[in-house]
Protein backbone atom coordinates (compact mmCIF):
# COMPACT_ATOMS: atom_id res chain seq x y z
CA UNK A 1 0.00 0.00 0.00
CA UNK A 2 1.34 3.41 -0.94
CA UNK A 3 0.06 6.80 0.21
CA UNK A 4 1.26 10.08 -1.28
CA UNK A 5 1.38 13.10 1.06
CA UNK A 6 -0.49 16.12 -0.30
CA UNK A 7 0.30 19.80 0.23
CA UNK A 8 -2.53 20.04 2.76
CA UNK A 9 -0.98 17.20 4.79
CA UNK A 10 2.52 18.70 4.89
CA UNK A 11 4.04 18.53 8.38
CA UNK A 12 1.58 16.04 9.85
CA UNK A 13 2.77 13.32 12.20
CA UNK A 14 2.92 10.00 10.38
CA UNK A 15 0.41 8.30 12.68
CA UNK A 16 -2.11 11.16 12.22
CA UNK A 17 -1.56 11.07 8.46
CA UNK A 18 -2.22 7.33 8.27
CA UNK A 19 -5.30 7.55 10.51
CA UNK A 20 -6.71 10.30 8.26
CA UNK A 21 -6.28 7.91 5.31
CA UNK A 22 -8.37 5.24 7.04
CA UNK A 23 -5.58 3.04 8.41
CA UNK A 24 -6.62 1.61 11.77
CA UNK A 25 -4.57 2.07 14.95
CA UNK A 26 -4.38 -1.70 15.25
CA UNK A 27 -2.82 -2.02 11.80
CA UNK A 28 -0.40 0.85 12.46
CA UNK A 29 0.75 -0.81 15.69
CA UNK A 30 1.16 -4.14 13.90
CA UNK A 31 3.22 -2.59 11.09
CA UNK A 32 5.45 -0.79 13.60
CA UNK A 33 6.53 -4.24 14.83
CA UNK A 34 7.08 -5.59 11.29
CA UNK A 35 10.47 -5.20 9.68
CA UNK A 36 10.00 -2.83 6.73
CA UNK A 37 6.34 -2.39 7.72
CA UNK A 38 6.32 1.43 7.28
CA UNK A 39 8.90 3.03 5.03
CA UNK A 40 9.66 6.28 3.21
CA UNK A 41 12.03 6.09 0.22
CA UNK A 42 12.96 2.58 1.35
CA UNK A 43 13.90 3.66 4.89
CA UNK A 44 11.96 2.76 8.00
CA UNK A 45 10.04 5.74 9.35
CA UNK A 46 8.64 6.16 12.88
CA UNK A 47 5.01 7.03 13.52
CA UNK A 48 6.08 10.12 15.53
CA UNK A 49 8.04 11.51 12.54
CA UNK A 50 6.63 14.24 10.33
CA UNK A 51 5.63 13.67 6.71
CA UNK A 52 6.02 16.26 3.99
CA UNK A 53 4.38 17.14 0.72
CA UNK A 54 5.57 14.78 -2.01
CA UNK A 55 6.54 11.98 0.38
CA UNK A 56 5.35 8.48 -0.49
CA UNK A 57 4.66 6.28 2.51
CA UNK A 58 4.73 2.53 1.88
CA UNK A 59 3.00 0.03 4.15
CA UNK A 60 3.96 -3.63 3.89
CA UNK A 61 2.08 -6.50 5.52
CA UNK A 62 3.62 -9.92 4.78
CA UNK A 63 1.38 -12.22 2.74
CA UNK A 64 0.70 -15.82 3.70
CA UNK A 65 0.88 -18.65 1.17
CA UNK A 66 -2.07 -21.01 1.03
CA UNK A 67 -1.41 -24.47 2.49
CA UNK A 68 -1.87 -27.66 0.49
CA UNK A 69 -4.91 -28.52 2.62
CA UNK A 70 -8.37 -28.35 1.06
CA UNK A 71 -11.64 -27.12 2.49
CA UNK A 72 -15.09 -28.66 2.08
CA UNK A 73 -16.65 -25.18 1.97
CA UNK A 74 -16.89 -23.60 -1.50
CA UNK A 75 -14.63 -20.58 -2.05
CA UNK A 76 -16.45 -17.97 -4.16
CA UNK A 77 -13.73 -15.32 -4.41
CA UNK A 78 -10.21 -14.66 -3.15
CA UNK A 79 -7.56 -11.96 -3.42
CA UNK A 80 -4.50 -11.03 -1.37
CA UNK A 81 -6.62 -9.37 1.35
CA UNK A 82 -9.73 -11.52 1.68
CA UNK A 83 -11.54 -14.74 0.88
CA UNK A 84 -15.31 -15.27 0.44
CA UNK A 85 -16.87 -18.60 1.42
CA UNK A 86 -20.31 -20.01 0.68
CA UNK A 87 -21.13 -21.18 4.20
CA UNK A 88 -23.53 -24.12 4.41
CA UNK A 89 -26.39 -24.11 6.92
CA UNK A 90 -25.77 -25.57 10.39
CA UNK A 91 -22.10 -24.51 10.39
CA UNK A 92 -21.09 -21.89 12.99
CA UNK A 93 -18.63 -19.23 11.91
CA UNK A 94 -16.59 -19.29 15.12
CA UNK A 95 -15.54 -21.99 17.54
CA UNK A 96 -17.63 -22.10 20.71
CA UNK A 97 -18.73 -24.55 23.39
CA UNK A 98 -19.91 -27.68 21.60
CA UNK A 99 -18.52 -26.52 18.24
CA UNK A 100 -14.79 -27.06 17.89
CA UNK A 101 -14.20 -28.98 14.67
CA UNK A 102 -17.25 -28.07 12.57
CA UNK A 103 -16.83 -24.32 12.10
CA UNK A 104 -15.92 -21.99 9.26
CA UNK A 105 -12.99 -20.83 11.38
CA UNK A 106 -11.54 -24.36 11.24
CA UNK A 107 -12.04 -24.49 7.46
CA UNK A 108 -10.24 -21.15 7.08
CA UNK A 109 -7.31 -22.46 9.14
CA UNK A 110 -7.02 -25.49 6.87
CA UNK A 111 -6.07 -23.04 4.13
CA UNK A 112 -4.19 -20.48 6.24
CA UNK A 113 -3.03 -22.12 9.48
CA UNK A 114 -0.91 -19.12 10.53
CA UNK A 115 -3.51 -16.40 10.01
CA UNK A 116 -6.08 -15.04 12.43
CA UNK A 117 -9.68 -15.66 11.37
CA UNK A 118 -11.10 -12.15 10.84
CA UNK A 119 -14.77 -12.66 9.97
CA UNK A 120 -16.23 -9.53 8.37
CA UNK A 121 -19.91 -10.52 8.13
CA UNK A 122 -20.63 -13.29 10.62
CA UNK A 123 -23.76 -15.32 9.90
CA UNK A 124 -25.87 -17.24 12.41
CA UNK A 125 -25.15 -20.96 12.50
CA UNK A 126 -28.33 -21.83 10.60
CA UNK A 127 -28.08 -19.01 8.05
CA UNK A 128 -26.25 -19.94 4.86
CA UNK A 129 -24.41 -17.94 2.22
CA UNK A 130 -21.58 -15.49 1.64
CA UNK A 131 -19.10 -14.97 4.47
CA UNK A 132 -16.05 -12.74 4.02
CA UNK A 133 -12.87 -13.41 5.98
CA UNK A 134 -10.01 -10.91 5.86
CA UNK A 135 -6.53 -12.36 5.40
CA UNK A 136 -4.77 -9.13 6.42
CA UNK A 137 -5.36 -6.45 9.03
CA UNK A 138 -5.39 -3.87 6.25
CA UNK A 139 -8.10 -5.81 4.44
CA UNK A 140 -10.15 -6.13 7.63
CA UNK A 141 -9.95 -2.40 8.30
CA UNK A 142 -10.97 -1.59 4.73
CA UNK A 143 -13.79 -4.13 4.39
CA UNK A 144 -15.49 -3.26 7.69
CA UNK A 145 -16.57 -0.01 6.02
CA UNK A 146 -17.38 -1.11 2.48
CA UNK A 147 -19.37 -4.37 2.48
CA UNK A 148 -23.01 -4.40 1.33
CA UNK A 149 -25.13 -7.54 1.68
CA UNK A 150 -28.33 -8.85 0.11
CA UNK A 151 -30.18 -11.72 1.77
CA UNK A 152 -32.91 -13.97 0.42
CA UNK A 153 -35.53 -15.43 2.73
CA UNK A 154 -38.86 -17.21 2.63
CA UNK A 155 -42.08 -16.49 4.49
CA UNK A 156 -45.70 -17.45 4.07
CA UNK A 157 -47.58 -15.53 1.37
CA UNK A 158 -46.91 -11.79 1.41
CA UNK A 159 -49.20 -9.36 -0.43
CA UNK A 160 -46.73 -6.47 -0.34
CA UNK A 161 -44.38 -6.00 -3.30
CA UNK A 162 -41.81 -4.40 -1.02
CA UNK A 163 -41.20 -1.80 1.63
CA UNK A 164 -39.01 -0.61 4.46
CA UNK A 165 -39.21 -1.73 8.07
CA UNK A 166 -38.01 0.71 10.72
CA UNK A 167 -38.33 -0.80 14.18
CA UNK A 168 -35.93 -0.47 17.11
CA UNK A 169 -34.41 -3.73 18.32
CA UNK A 170 -33.44 -4.68 21.88
CA UNK A 171 -32.38 -7.81 23.75
CA UNK A 172 -35.34 -9.89 24.94
CA UNK A 173 -35.51 -9.79 28.73
CA UNK A 174 -34.50 -13.10 30.27
CA UNK A 175 -32.77 -14.34 27.11
CA UNK A 176 -29.13 -14.14 26.09
CA UNK A 177 -29.98 -14.85 22.44
CA UNK A 178 -33.43 -13.62 21.50
CA UNK A 179 -34.11 -10.06 20.32
CA UNK A 180 -37.36 -8.12 20.12
CA UNK A 181 -38.82 -4.86 18.85
CA UNK A 182 -38.97 -2.42 21.76
CA UNK A 183 -39.12 1.37 22.05
CA UNK A 184 -35.88 1.57 24.04
CA UNK A 185 -33.98 -0.51 21.48
CA UNK A 186 -31.43 0.57 18.88
CA UNK A 187 -32.51 1.97 15.53
CA UNK A 188 -32.79 -0.71 12.82
CA UNK A 189 -33.97 -0.50 9.20
CA UNK A 190 -34.50 -3.25 6.64
CA UNK A 191 -35.57 -2.82 3.01
CA UNK A 192 -37.41 -5.76 1.45
CA UNK A 193 -38.50 -6.64 -2.09
CA UNK A 194 -40.73 -9.53 -3.07
CA UNK A 195 -39.01 -11.67 -5.69
CA UNK A 196 -41.66 -14.28 -6.31
CA UNK A 197 -44.79 -15.90 -4.92
CA UNK A 198 -44.69 -19.70 -5.05
CA UNK A 199 -48.06 -21.20 -4.15
CA UNK A 200 -48.64 -20.00 -0.59
CA UNK A 201 -45.03 -18.96 0.00
CA UNK A 202 -43.04 -15.81 -0.83
CA UNK A 203 -39.38 -15.47 -1.75
CA UNK A 204 -38.07 -12.08 -0.61
CA UNK A 205 -34.82 -10.12 -0.90
CA UNK A 206 -33.66 -8.18 2.16
CA UNK A 207 -31.13 -5.35 2.31
CA UNK A 208 -29.82 -4.32 5.71
CA UNK A 209 -29.42 -0.61 6.34
CA UNK A 210 -28.16 -1.38 9.86
CA UNK A 211 -26.57 -4.51 11.30
CA UNK A 212 -28.41 -5.52 14.46
CA UNK A 213 -28.34 -9.07 15.78
CA UNK A 214 -31.11 -11.19 14.17
CA UNK A 215 -32.36 -8.04 12.41
CA UNK A 216 -34.12 -9.68 9.44
CA UNK A 217 -35.59 -12.41 11.62
CA UNK A 218 -36.91 -9.93 14.18
CA UNK A 219 -38.31 -7.54 11.58
CA UNK A 220 -40.08 -10.34 9.71
CA UNK A 221 -41.66 -11.57 12.95
CA UNK A 222 -42.64 -7.99 13.80
CA UNK A 223 -44.56 -7.80 10.50
CA UNK A 224 -46.39 -10.99 11.39
CA UNK A 225 -44.54 -12.99 8.73
CA UNK A 226 -41.66 -14.79 10.49
CA UNK A 227 -39.18 -16.66 8.31
CA UNK A 228 -40.09 -20.24 7.58
CA UNK A 229 -38.36 -22.64 9.95
CA UNK A 230 -37.44 -19.91 12.44
CA UNK A 231 -38.67 -21.53 15.65
CA UNK A 232 -37.07 -18.81 17.80
CA UNK A 233 -39.35 -16.15 16.32
CA UNK A 234 -42.50 -18.15 15.60
CA UNK A 235 -41.81 -19.41 12.08
CA UNK A 236 -43.57 -22.49 10.70
CA UNK A 237 -41.17 -25.43 11.13
CA UNK A 238 -43.19 -27.85 8.99
CA UNK A 239 -41.37 -26.57 5.88
CA UNK A 240 -37.75 -26.43 7.07
CA UNK A 241 -35.68 -27.29 10.14
CA UNK A 242 -33.82 -23.94 10.11
CA UNK A 243 -34.66 -20.33 9.33
CA UNK A 244 -35.07 -19.90 5.55
CA UNK A 245 -32.40 -17.21 5.23
CA UNK A 246 -29.44 -17.04 2.87
CA UNK A 247 -26.83 -14.32 2.27
CA UNK A 248 -26.99 -14.41 -1.53
CA UNK A 249 -24.78 -11.44 -2.42
CA UNK A 250 -21.94 -9.40 -0.98
CA UNK A 251 -20.56 -6.32 -2.71
CA UNK A 252 -17.42 -4.42 -1.77
CA UNK A 253 -14.50 -2.44 -3.12
CA UNK A 254 -11.29 -4.44 -3.38
CA UNK A 255 -8.94 -3.11 -0.68
CA UNK A 256 -6.74 -0.26 -1.92
CA UNK A 257 -7.67 -0.65 -5.61
CA UNK A 258 -11.34 0.33 -5.19
CA UNK A 259 -12.35 -2.14 -7.89
CA UNK A 260 -16.05 -2.95 -7.32
CA UNK A 261 -16.74 -6.64 -6.72
CA UNK A 262 -20.03 -8.53 -6.34
CA UNK A 263 -19.95 -12.15 -5.18
CA UNK A 264 -22.98 -14.45 -5.34
CA UNK A 265 -23.81 -17.62 -3.44
CA UNK A 266 -26.44 -19.89 -5.04
CA UNK A 267 -29.46 -20.91 -3.01
CA UNK A 268 -28.73 -23.97 -0.85
CA UNK A 269 -30.40 -27.28 -1.57
CA UNK A 270 -33.04 -27.05 1.16
CA UNK A 271 -34.31 -23.69 -0.09
CA UNK A 272 -34.24 -24.82 -3.73
CA UNK A 273 -36.37 -27.80 -2.73
CA UNK A 274 -38.80 -25.50 -0.95
CA UNK A 275 -39.03 -23.10 -3.90
CA UNK A 276 -39.38 -26.02 -6.31
CA UNK A 277 -36.78 -24.66 -8.71
CA UNK A 278 -33.37 -23.01 -8.78
CA UNK A 279 -33.40 -19.23 -8.57
CA UNK A 280 -30.64 -17.21 -10.20
CA UNK A 281 -29.45 -14.97 -7.37
CA UNK A 282 -27.47 -12.86 -9.85
CA UNK A 283 -30.70 -10.97 -10.53
CA UNK A 284 -30.17 -9.26 -7.16
Report low-confidence residues grouped into runs of 5 or more: none
Write down how many β-strands occur, each being a DSSP E stretch of 2 or more residues: 16
Mean pLDDT across the residues is 91
Q: Which outline best applies? A: elongated
CATH superfamily of the domain at 149-246: Pseudouridine synthase
β-sheet strand percentage? 25-35%
Helix and strand pattern: EHHEEEEEHEEHEEEEEEHEEH
Per the CATH scheme, the topology name of the domain at 149-246 is Pseudouridine synthase
SS element count, helices: 6
Structural class: alpha+beta
CATH class of the domain at 149-246: Alpha Beta
CATH architecture of the domain at 149-246: 2-Layer Sandwich
Distance between the termini: 32 Å
The helical percent reads 10-25%
Overview of the molecule:
- The protein has 284 residues and is an alpha+beta fold.
- Among the domains are: 2-59, Structural Genomics Hypothetical 15.5 Kd Protein In mrcA-pckA Intergenic Region, Chain A (Roll); 149-246, Pseudouridine synthase.
- It is built from six helices and 16 strands.
- It has helices at 14-20, 25-32, 104-111, 137-143, 215-222, 269-275; strands at 2-4, 38-40, 43-44, 56-59, 75-78, 82-87, 118-119, 128-134, 148-156, 162-166, 169-171, 179-181, 189-198, 201-208, 245-253, 260-264.
- Strands 5, 6, 7, 8, 9, 10, 13, 14, 15 and 16 form a ten-stranded mixed β-sheet that branches.
- A hairpin with a 7-residue loop joins β11 and β12.
- The protein starts with a strand and ends in a 9-residue tail after the last helix.
- The mean pLDDT is 91.
